Amino acid sequence: MEATLNTFMRQQLLDRRHRLEHAAGHSDAHSHLHSLLKEVDGALARMEDGSFGICESCHESIEPDRLMCDPLVRICLDHLTGQERDALERDLQLAAEVQRGLLPRQGLERDGWHICYHYEPAGLVSGDYCDVIDAGEAGLYFTVGDVSGKGMAGSMLMAHLHAMFRTLISVRLPLAEMLKHASRVFSESTLPSQYATLVCGRAKPDGVVEICNAGHPPPLLVSRGNITCLEQSDLPVGLFASEEFSVSELRFEPGDGLVIYSDGVSEAMDPDGVEYSTDRLQDLIRGHGPVNAPALVAACRDDLTAFRAHARKMDDVTLFVLGRQLPAREFVYMA
Ligand SMILES: [Zn+2]
Questions:
Q1: Ligand 1: distance of its center to the CA of 69 in Å?
Q2: Which pLDDT does position 70 carry in this prediction?
Q3: Hey, what domains does the chain have and what are their CATH numbers?
Q4: Can you give the C-alpha Rg of the chain in angstroms?
Q5: Which residues neighbour 191 within 8 Å (Cβ) at sequence distance 6 or greater?
Q6: Which of 262, 252, 244 is nearest to 304 (CA)?
Q7: What is the model's pLDDT at position 276?
Q8: For residue 26, what pLDDT is reported?
Q9: What are the helix and strand counts (H, E) for the chain?
Q10: Please, which residues have CB within 8 angstroms of residue 282's CB and are 6 or more apart in sequence?
Q11: Which residues surround ligand 1, an ion (CB under 5 A)?
C-alpha cells in the first residue's frame, strides 16, 4: 500500500482513538466504546508490524476502497461470513439510496432550457457526479463529474463534491473562482491520489452558457446540426491546491444543445470487447436533429444498453443533456 495512504489512515485512526478515549472516559459503562477502542489499537498495531490491510483468513490484500471506508476491516470480501456479507450488502443498499437522493430533479425546464440526464452506477453506488442547481435569475448551474475510484469510496467522494459545490454555488462566485476554491478544498480534504474530472457550467436566461472543463472528456456542442468537441480543458479538480481554471462562453440558439458524458459511456464495451466510442455517440446525436433533451437522453441510453448487451458493466455511466428549447410553434411546424 502507498506510504501516503498509510500515513493518512494512521492519522485517521489516531484521531478516532483520541475521540473514543474521550467519550469512553474511565468508566466501564461504555463497553462498546472500549471494544471499539481495542479494535482501533489492533489496527494501529497491525500498521506497526506491517500486517495492516492483509486478510486474516487468506493473507492476501484486502480491497483498498474497503479499507479506506473502514480501516478496521480485517477480512477480504471473499472470506467474510454470510452474516458479515449481509451486513455489507445492507450498508451498500443504504449508500445507494442516499446517493439516489442526491441526484437532481429530472427534466428541469427554465428560461428556455431543458435538462435531462441518465445516471447508472456500475455496481450499487457510483463515483460519477451529476447535479443541477436552479439559481433563479443567475441561471442554472450544472456539474457532471467523475471521481477517482469506484464503489463505496467513489460514492463518498461524490457526496463530498456534491456538498462542496452546493455550498460554493450559494455564494455566487464567478465560475473560475468557484472551481479554484473547489479544487483547493477537495485537494486539502482528500488523499493525494484522489481527484475529480468535471465539467461545470452556468446556463443563463439569455441563452448564453459559461462552461469550464476540469480534465473531463470533451463535452459535445450541438449547434444547427453540427457537432463540436469542446477540447479546451484544465487539470482535474483536487490535483493541486492552487489551480487556475478558464471559462468559455457559448451562445445557444433554439434547438442547440450540450451533451456531457463520463468515460463510462465512450469506453463501454460490447460482449466482444469493442468500445462504444465518442464517434458512435456523435453519429447518434447528429441523426437526432434539433436537440430535445429527454428524447436525446432516451435515445443515447437505449443505444448504449443495446450495444453493451449482456457484457459486464465496467464503469459508472452518466450522460447529461442541456437543450435550448424550440419555441412552441416550431414544434408544431416540425410535427
Ligand atoms: Zn481473504
A1: 18
A2: 83
A3: 3-80 (1.20.120.910), 105-334 (3.60.40.10)
A4: 23
A5: 4, 5, 8, 68
A6: 262
A7: 97
A8: 65
A9: 10, 11
A10: 220, 227
A11: 55, 57-58, 76, 79
Ligand 1 mean position, distance from CA 55 (Å): 5
- Cα(130)–Cα(105) distance, rounded to whole angstroms? 11
- The residue written with cell numbers 443498499 in the block is 93
Predicted pLDDT at 335 = 42
Cα(38) to ligand 1 centroid in Å equals 22
Output the CA angle 51-52-58, nearest 5 degrees.
Answer: 65
Q: What pLDDT score was predicted for residue 287? A: 93
pLDDT for res 240: 81
Question: How remote is the CA of residue 73 from the centroid of ligand 1, in Å?
Answer: 11
Q: At what angle do helices 31-49 and 3-24 cross, to 10 degrees?
A: 160
CB within 8 Å of 49: residues ≥ 6 apart:
none
**Segments of the chain with pLDDT less than 70:** 1-5, 26-29, 328-335
Q: 164 CB contacts (<8 Å, ≥6 apart)? A: 182, 185, 186
What's the CA-to-centroid distance between 74 and ligand 1, angstroms? 9
CA 57 to ligand 1 centroid distance, Å: 5
Q: CB-side exposure of 256: number of CA atoms within 13 Å? A: 16
What span, in angstroms and rounded, lies between the C-alpha atoms of 199 and 215?
A: 8
Q: Ligand 1 centre from 62 Cα, in Å?
A: 7
